[in-house]
Amino acid sequence: MSGRCSFFSPSSSDITSLSHSITPSLSLSLSLPTTKTLLRRRKTGSSFKPLVCAAINNPLQYRKLGDSDLNISEITLGTMTFGEQNTEKESHDILNYAFDNGINALDTAEAYDPIRNLIASGLTDCGGVSETETILEYELGLTQPYKIGFSNPLEDVFNGHVGLNSEYPIPMKKETQGKTDLYIASWLKSQSRDKIILATKVCGYSERASYLRDNADILRVDTANIKESVEKSLKRLGTDYIDLLQIHWPDRYVPLFGEYSYDSSKWRPSVPFVEQLQAFQELINEGKVRYIGVSNETSYGVMEFVHAAKVEGLPKIVSIQNSYSLVVRSRFEVDLVEVCHPKNCNIGLLSYSPLGGGSLTGKYIDINSAAAKRGRLNLFPGYMERYNKSIAREATIKYLELAEKHGLTPVQLALGFARDRPFMTSSIIGATSVEQLKEDIDAFTTTERPLPAEVFADIEAIFKRYKDPTIL
């Protein structure tokens, strides 16, 4: 296999091509290598033609996801903005463009809308609130009143797992709650379900999001929680099966979202791995779930799941959804890449935030720019702040300079890097407009594949200086 497993090789039989026409994008040259000239912001109707090579049109490629029979496109559409930043029509336009241009997978989660609603009224500007009380009464089955209190607007909603100062939630208005899955459901009605890889996620441990369940004080990844989550997801999505069900974050304590070191004092008893897999087995037997995966997981967790599956004859996880980008590399590359290797556990990587929450586009360098003001890092203060309140900002500027040096846009550099990693199965990319999505797809299909060796050499030089720049 000449040093690279056939699973990842562009010439592998596990990778096929889908021909489709991509309109050549317009080129735009930069003048001075100043901070402002590096801000090749996303603009409606604008994109860029790579200068490192002649015009290229490489269709999206497809890769087998772990041990499954799913051949997934190298881009998976992320849907987290549906219902808050995107209307139903906009969401459908984005979905249509994605699937018309070679994408065959979409990723959602039970957490995306209901959890974000926890801080919907009173905390959208992070101005502080002592207590928020809301009643959820809508078609998702959440009809019980719940009360949540915050002593600090940046207090973690999930007791160290997920909070305003991390990935989730994005604050939402009450009237938009629960719409991500509903928008997907209304779109699915006009689609061939068997042509779509539908992935969703069940919440991990949470003491503050128990309202998602009918009778639970704490969310756990146990049999009852898993089954209730799946039933409600199926109802919201208007389908009778899920292609890939993932555990959004572990039931046990693990460091997440910018927390780098494991804090042994936070250890707590957790649901046994075998019990979690047994619940998934029952759902698979019932035809409600096809395959299972994990997210925000560690090497220990992956190995325990794989071992339990092997010993007990239970379903094996086929994927891991972790953050990976130019500014978030070390955690996966240090040892998860070995664990997930096809010759070891054969776990497919579905990377999220390949653009660093949009920061790697450069639009947040000038915080007063129109693009920055429209971006989610500013719309939702505290959200993904590790990309701005760390040396990641400094590293981002270096990558912007590198992109300009090689005649690439920041998006082409960031997504080309993710695309060409030998361990990458699919990159999860969200977009708030068709124009953004077109730029992202073009970065995969019209940029030289792989990126030239000198580009990777320069990336590695920056990486040696900024190995973990997003750690707070």
From TrEMBL:
Cross-referenced Pfam families: Aldo_ket_red (PF00248)
Presence of the UniProt keyword Oxidoreductase in the record: yes
SUPFAM superfamilies, per database record: NAD(P)-linked oxidoreductase
Matching InterPro entries: AKR_Detox_Biosynth (IPR050523), NAD(P)_OxRdtase_dom_sf (IPR036812), NADP_OxRdtase_dom (IPR023210)
Alphabetical UniProt keywords: Oxidoreductase
Domain of life, per lineage: Eukaryota
One MF term in the entry's GO annotations: oxidoreductase activity
Oxidoreductase as UniProt keyword: yes
CDD domains: AKR_Tas-like
Annotated ranges, domain NADP-dependent oxidoreductase: 74-123, 183-462
Name assigned to this protein: Protein tas-like
Organism of provenance: Trifolium pratense (Red clover)
